[in-house]
Amino acid sequence: MNNDLHSRALSVIPGGVNSPARAFKSVGGNPLYADRAEGPYLYTRDGRKLLDFCLSFGPMVLGHADPDVVKALQEAAVKGTSYAVTTEAEIEMAELITGSIDIMDKVRLVNSGTEAVMTALRLARGYTGRNKILKFSGCYHGHTDSMLVQAGSGVAGIAAASSAGVTAEAAGSTLVCAFNDAAAVETLVREHAGDLAAIVVEPLAANMGLVLPEAKYLLRLRELCDEVGALLIFDEVITGYRLTFGAYANLCCAKPDLITLGKIIGGGLPIGAVGGKAEIMNHLAPDGPVYQAGTLSGNPLCMAAGLANLRKLQSLNPYSELEARCIRLTDAMKTAAAEKGIPVAIPRFGSMFSVFFRESEPRNFSEVMASDTERFVKVFHGMLDAGIYLPPSPFETSFLSVLHTDALLDKTVEAWEQALAKS
Ligand SMILES: *Cc1c(COP(=O)(O)O)cnc(C)c1O
Fold first, then answer.
1. Cβ < 6 Å from ligand 1: which residues?
2. Superfamily of chain region 2-61+318-421
């Protein structure tokens, strides 16, 4: 069955997938084919029931097919699925988001995290009248041209394209720097002071595995932006509503000018958002000169799912419990590895964690790359065989949902011990 789906997929979809992270390239073996998902479980077409720590790469914080989200979708669907006319649900969504994120007066809804970042960058350029954007190696901001870059020659400086099809011009307006290197970013910002529109950062870098910012690092970015008149953008597509009801920026002493959101705010439907102070947001069309649009933006199904998801999160307020469970899980995983003498670092924040087979928690992308990925691949498959689905790459972050109970986490630790033993 799976082999049949796999060969059909490969013959009509490039690489058999509609997003490359699904292809299992970095862990090997055939990718999964989903049948359905419910609660903490993903059910595959070849009959497996997997405890899901990937959770669609983050959005499914209530677990899959949450009954309230499903009901909201059903009720919305019969009323028509796109009007290109504003709905009250869009206003409610904007009220809920701006009401729960300190720095946001206004928010524009789009269809993906990629679009959110693309809009934030254009807005930062339009607002400041400057060209350059500084990003950090290993941070992911979607697949817009200027973000598909890697460090050029040297540790910090003008970027080179990391994808075919990205022009040297698009890459050349991006500066790249190592994460957590305050001296390097300071030099780079000052070098390009007059032309720097924004620094964009995942405040908790979660797309190279989880890499936490060092103390005061984000504050230093804030100071540097203020010094040269650039905007600070927190890309919170993963972290928004994952760690608190609102943005990570609510918890952080550094306050960004713009925040991008996605994933959780859509409750599993396609969405993105960019928001900030009215003074900046008013530069967007139709009031301002920075153009941005979308036929399906604020789509009623996405609003229904997103609102149901966010309202349930607001009333459950599961964040401290999620964190306590994640601490328990990662502590048990560390203990098990230590007992076997296997070096592992498991950075964690709230209900996000990742596994690096190396001695210490990585501080940046080059330290991330210096981990034992072969062991990760063995452990990933060992866990998968035992019914536990970690994200299929050594460089992704794992997530808990509110339905990952203590009993399920105990089973996860058992599977981890066995997978380690065989690695
Ligand atoms: C997922 C993600 C994106 C891209 O969002 P899409 O909806 O996949 O386009 C951008 N930034 C961060 C931090 C993300 O995690």
1. 112-114, 117, 140-142, 202, 207, 235, 237-238, 262, 272
2. Aspartate Aminotransferase, domain 1 (3.90.1150.10)
